[in-house]
Write a structure and sequence with these properties.
By secondary structure, the protein is mainly alpha-helical. Helix content is 48%, strand content 8%. The protein contains 5 helices and 3 strands; from the N terminus they run H-E-H-H-E-E-H-H. A 3-stranded antiparallel β-sheet has the order 1-3-2. Helix 1 packs across helix 2 and helix 1 (29-44) packs across helix 3. The longest helix is centred in the last third of the chain and has 26 residues, at 99-124.
């Protein structure tokens, strides 16, 4: 069983050379940071690559720049796509687990842990014996 299948917290996949992708060349440093923020926000909230307008505003507060400007850079570069109520991250589900997969993995993990716990309790339970 792969480690990722048993984790309660989903992980976003990001290669160690993502910034070398030619699509990132026209994107500012803060735009790249918003892209990473968006990936992790979407994963944590199990949104399948969707990032809402509200999330963009929240994620960009500490960047000191209007998040919609940075999001525009990402859309122009083809890294995000306009969607109803926000943006979708290009290719998100090609590399990351879907909400459905994460939930199924959590259920499977909970069942495995429950079975293991019940077996441990059963192994420690001694049969009842009357006192001599």
């Amino acid at each position: 069983m792969a480690l990722a299948e048993t984790e309660a917290m989903p992980w976003v996949k990001l290669t160690d050379d993502w910034y070398d992708n030619p699509k990132f060349q026209p994107v500012s440093g803060l735009g790249r940071l918003l892209w990473v923020y968006g990936l992790t926000w979407s994963c944590r909230n199990m949104r399948d690559g969707f990032v809402s307008y509200q999330a963009v505003r929240q994620l960009s507060v500490d960047l000191g720049v209007d998040g919609s400007v940075l999001a525009g850079e990402l859309v122009e570069a083809g890294l995000w796509h306009e969607a109803d109520g926000g943006y979708t991250i290009h290719g998100y589900l090609d590399f990351n687990r879907s909400r459905e997969d994460i939930i199924a993995g959590r259920r499977k993990d909970a069942d495995r842990k429950s079975t293991r716990a019940m077996a441990a309790v059963a192994a420690q339970t001694l049969p009842w014996r009357p006192a001599p």
